[in-house]
Amino acid sequence: MPVIDPSNPIVVLTGAGISKESGLETFRDADGIWSKVRIEDVATPEAFVRDPARVHAFYNARRQGLLNANVQPNPAHVALARLERDWPGGVLIVTQNIDDLHERAGSANLIHMHGELLKSRCEECGDITECRHDLSIALKCLSCGRDGGLRPHVVWFGEMPLSMDEIEQALARAGLFMSIGTSGNVYPAAGFVEVVRHYGRGHSVELNLEPSVGATSFAETRYGPAGDVVPAYVDELLSAV
Ligand code: APR
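^ thats the input. predicted complex w/ adenosine-5-diphosphoribose below
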């Protein structure tokens, strides 16, 4: 690792791999979610129009799984919260994950670019609200009173990820870009390392179980379980502060 100037901001991109050791499934590993269900059946706007009950059932099961008492932040989430607390230049986490494990570990400067499983959104009035219960087409929106429009507040394939302007500005300023637990298959997140390279200011590191699709774009790579490699990397960063 080169010495990173502690006055420079850090941007961290996280994906499903960081939550694997907390007991949540990834998408594209051999036993991942997309080996069991088809994206086009549960994670597109068209699927929701065609069969909303099926889409609700898929996200209801995932929400119940996330709320299981055994699912807790792991040492990788905890290390990133410590980095945010102790790094002078500031840390922004951009997560593709819809779980709330970063928040539970103590991270506050956080963008959920693919939305949040523990929120619902009304397609009729746009109201976004906390949601820890099952959703169904029979439910009424508490804000506008209309029924049938409540959906998980998640970004489906074919929809625009959230807060892209803010993310791009942060990538342009970053002195370090860390990509953790993501396979690099899904854009725009898969292209963030190229954005950092384009601006030419930031060092880039991939921390993952195995090389991602875009591994060769990173200046540095470290492979192993997130619960091991992330705390070790954070320790090295903070030893220079
Ligand atoms: N530690 C670190 N990395 C791990 C671990 C672990 N314990 N276990 C698995 N991984 C790695 C895998 O090797 C893989 O490269 O995490 C990555 C997970 O990749 P994906 O399953 O493709 O998840 P992600 O990249 O987050 O997917 C992006 O795809 O379907 C969509 O919207 C969904 O946000 C998701 C997006």
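The mean pLDDT is 97.
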